[in-house]
């Protein structure tokens, strides 16, 4: 019985994103019907585009890799009760620093590889920590500061690869670093497929974060701060220390998202390659859909990645436009908003009942 309860607790966070995606698919079916296409055929094409064969499955997992890592970083911040909206900037800075470390740190391939991971993690962590420090020191709202720091990070990374570290060997003169040496490339999990070792790192990261949050004293402090900061402070938890700790690791994990993309997919930093696909905002949606549960975030990230890769196949093979996927994602955002509104209403009602209000 105890085992059954534990399994239910483990599966519960994965159930919520699946229900949300199901609601999104029902709404998408209405939009497909308005276009005049067959709903079943369109969704079959979408499914085939995401999971139809081994190649498409690995493409979906490759796309899910940075989304999982970004989602994990944000889930950690949300568990601590802080709104880190700067994942995009942290991911981009992590990516460009990892690329530069892999290019210019002297030594063997393994030294360059480890240096790239360390540089990516520290760069994302310090950028996030800056926002946390401004919150602690000057009461600058994290929601605003992290959002605005995205622009600074993305533009600064663009300057680095357009000026001092630009690859000028080709005729295209794109804003990108030189190609990394093959010794620092993350190995592919399957020959000829796009999914790489970064996916394994992301899955292991989800398990580690789940264990840390559920079974360690540090995770307990993070959860307590997120649930009730006043009670946490009263219980002896150093609020500022936990906030800064959470922000550093949150940004560091987002920095790793950029790192694995550079080392496993692009093999160089290319301006816009991480921002145009919207990895950071999809990761945000995954974390919110899973209620910041690390395992649920990983599942939600894979589902959202499948939605995107499936939509590309749908556009190629049917008359249904790619924007149908945006409609479904919009419904997911509404689902998240409704869930938070309902939680807020319940808390308010409970407080009203305690105070004797109606």
Automatic annotation (TrEMBL):
Q: Name one Pfam family in it.
A: BPD_transp_2
Segments traversing the membrane: 14-34, 54-78, 90-107, 113-130, 142-162, 189-213, 242-263, 295-314, 320-342
Q: Where located?
A: Cell membrane
Q: Which residues form the signal peptide?
A: none
Q: Sorted alphabetically, which keywords does the UniProt record give?
A: Cell membrane, Membrane, Transmembrane, Transmembrane helix
The record, for InterPro entries, names: ABC_transp_permease (IPR001851)
Q: Transmembrane helix: is it a keyword of this entry? A: yes
Q: How does it sit in the membrane?
A: Multi-pass membrane protein
Protein name stated in the entry: ABC transporter permease
């Amino acid at each position: 019985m105890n085992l059954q309860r534990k399994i239910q607790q483990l599966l519960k966070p994965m159930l919520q994103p699946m229900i949300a995606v199901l609601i999104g698919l029902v709404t998408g079916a209405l939009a497909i019907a308005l276009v005049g296409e067959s709903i079943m055929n369109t969704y079959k094409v979408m499914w085939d585009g995401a999971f139809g064969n081994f190649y498409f499955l690995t493409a979906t997992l490759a796309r899910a890799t940075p989304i999982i890592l970004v989602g994990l970083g944000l889930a950690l911040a949300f568990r601590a009760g802080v709104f880190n909206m700067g994942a995009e900037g942290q991911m981009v800075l992590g990516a460009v620093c990892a690329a530069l470390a892999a290019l210019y740190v002297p030594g063997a391939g393994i030294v360059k590889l480890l240096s790239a991971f360390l540089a990516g993690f520290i760069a994302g962590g310090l950028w996030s920590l800056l926002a946390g420090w401004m919150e602690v020191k000057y009461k600058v709202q994290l929601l605003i500061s992290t959002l605005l720091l995205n622009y600074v990070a993305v533009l600064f990374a663009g300057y680095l690869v357009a000026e001092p570290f630009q690859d000028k060997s080709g005729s295209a003169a794109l804003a990108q670093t030189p190609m990394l040496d093959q010794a620092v490339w993350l190995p592919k999990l399957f020959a000829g497929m796009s999914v790489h070792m970064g996916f394994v790192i992301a899955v292991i990261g989800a398990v580690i974060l789940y264990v840390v949050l559920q079974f360690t004293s540090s995770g307990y402090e993070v959860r307590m701060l997120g649930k009730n900061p006043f009670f946490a402070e009263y219980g002896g938890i150093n609020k500022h220390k936990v906030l800064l700790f959470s922000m550093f690791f949150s940004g560091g994990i987002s920095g790793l998202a950029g790192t694995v993309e550079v080392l496993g997919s692009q093999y160089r930093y290319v301006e816009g390659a991480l921002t145009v696909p919207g990895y950071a905002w999809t990761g945000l949606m995954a974390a919110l859909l899973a209620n910041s549960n690390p395992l649920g975030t990983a599942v939600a990230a894979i589902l959202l990645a499948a939605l995107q890769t499936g939509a590309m196949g749908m556009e190629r093979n049917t008359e249904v436009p790619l924007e149908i996927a945006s409609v479904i994602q919009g419904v997911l955002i509404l689902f998240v908003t409704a869930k938070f509104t309902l939680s807020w209403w319940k808390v308010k009602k409970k407080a009203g009942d305690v105070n004797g209000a109606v």
